[in-house]
Amino acid sequence: MTYLYIAAQLRTRRHRLPSGRSAAGCWVAWARAGAGLLLILLARPVAAQAPVATIFTTATSPLPDNAVTALCYDARHARLWVGTDFGLTRLELANPAAPIWTIYHAATGGLPADAVRAIAVADSGGAAVWVGTFQGGLARLDVRAGTWQTWTAATSPLPFDHIRALAPEPDGGVWIGTAGGGLAHRTGAGIWQVFMPTNSALPTGNVAALVRDAVDSTVWIGTINGGLARWRRGALRNYTLLADNLPDNTVLALALDSLRRPVLGTAAAGLVRYRTDSTWAAYGPRTSANPAATVLALAADSAGRWWLGTAQHGLVGLEQGRWARFGFGSAAGLPDSTVRAVAVGAGGDLWLGLRSGGLARWRPGPLSGLAAPTTDDEPLALWPNPARVARPASVRWRAVGAATVWVYDQQGRVAWQTREAVASVRLPALAPGLYAVRVAVGARVYTRRLMVGE
Questions:
Q1: Radius of gyration (Cα) for the chain, nearest Å?
Q2: Which of 151, 175, 220, 397 has a Cα-to-Cα distance from 232 of 20 to 30 A?
Q3: Model confidence over 26-44: pLDDT tens digits?
């Protein structure tokens, strides 16, 4: 049995009664009105102060927990999957005014742990859904049959039970990003392959984001402190700050643009895009009108707009080079400044998973009258390169204004830093090795690699 959730005002008193269990292994709740009359729980969604957004919380809906960690929208079935810190939720949205809620808990069987961290629809038919959990491993739910399969590090080749990212394949396979056990691939035939820094070119065992290109099966892998990796035709290729001028080595979210190029949500550089000239463009507080340095989630809608779930800056929108922020007191009226998950639903609806404010549904209008982003295309000269210990390099830039210059070593530590009023500086003698030189002039940030020899 499931919850029926309709927008109708009831004149009955709501009661907390013992929960029951349905045949599908989900929690069901009841409300009692009058002597002996049982009704399926009915409730009315409570909108935020702004008239456009609707907020679902544990107090106003069957949502099992207000910490929403993952979202996945199944367009074919008009179905939204919601991961929380206390269970998995399925919303049937064929009738948006009366969504039907189904709640899954570990205590009711199937779901291996209540703390959900990743969700992915298994195929275009929506017949199954993959669920990654915190400390409970991997699960697969057959939606029609209501049956579960589970895999843990103790019972399968799964390398780690904390799963942060999933990327399904059409043949029933799935790529699995773990928070310490590296990257795993399970084929539709049940064959496992595990990638770690010890047995492959994967730069770190901490994988935070995955996206699969449906055209050529390329898998992009976002890591914590290891940069971006690409799996293509049986080989791994890494992109890092030092080797490839990647603006940030921690990639928290991944998506593909209309040209199938990776778009990154990073921990400190904001939104990062791969350009056609094989360079990276960073859009963060230093380089654009994007207020958020930390991007936790990414989604693009049918109008070509990008939506960013951020830490402390709410929801950020990007449309044709213009930015907008939606949070406290804004058009969205969000009750939480941290958006952990974003999914695009039917009719342009945005579904937002909030850190502690529940689930939000919002239909945005055009983004207009906003500041256009600056770019990081100004040249930066660094010579000689390679430099030597006895012959340090010099840096020169074209942008006018006071500049901060940083030199980072291979471990990402600041080896040297200065503040200059002129447009050039001579670096100090550096030990042999590979470095990254970063210059910030106002809103512009430039990064170059530097090699220092004996």
A1: 24
A2: 151
A3: 333 333 333 333 333 333 3
Q: Tell me phi and psi for residue 432, to 5 degrees.
A: -55, 140
Question: For residue 20, what are the contacts with CB-CB under 8 A and spacing of at least 6?
Answer: 1, 27, 28, 29, 30
State the Cα–Cα distance between residues 87 and 125, nearest whole angstrom: 24
107 three-state secondary structure: helix
The domains of the chain are located at 44-362, 380-453
The structure tokens listed for 383 are 């010579």
- Can 44-362 and 380-453 be said to share one CATH topology? no
Distance, CA of 22 to CA of 38 (rounded, Å):
16
| Structure tokens that stand for 244 in this block | 């490839």
Q: What percent of the chain is helix, strand and coil (3-state, nearest 5)?
A: 0, 45, 50
Sort strands 387-388 and 444-453 into parallel, antiparallel or unpaired: parallel
Match 């100004």 to its residue by tokens.
378
Q: Which CATH architecture has domain 380-453?
A: Sandwich (2.60)
Q: Write the burial class of residue 13 (CB in 10 Å: 0-12 exposed, 13-18 middle, 19+ buried).
A: exposed
Q: How many CB atoms lie within 10 A of CB 214?
A: 11
For the chain, which ranges sit under pLDDT 70? 1-52, 123-126, 276-277, 327-332, 367-379, 398-399
In this predicted structure, what is the pLDDT of residue 332? 59
| 119 close to 166: Cβ distance less than 8 angstroms | yes
| Dmax (CA) of the chain | 91
Cβ neighbours, 10 Å, residue 413: 8
Q: Which long-range contacts (CB under 8 A, 24 or more apart) does 40-47 make?
A: 40/1, 40/3, 40/4, 41/3, 41/4, 41/5, 41/14, 42/4, 42/5, 42/6, 42/8, 42/10, 43/5, 43/6, 43/10, 43/14, 44/6, 44/7, 44/8, 44/9, 44/10, 45/5, 45/7, 47/333
**Cα–Cα dist 212/130, whole Å:** 15
Distance from the Cα of residue 233 to its chain's centroid: 25
Beta bridge partners of 207: 223
- pLDDT value at residue 382: 76
The CATH class for the domain spanning 44-362 reads: mainly beta
Q: Count the helices and strands in the chain (H runs, E runs).
A: 1, 42
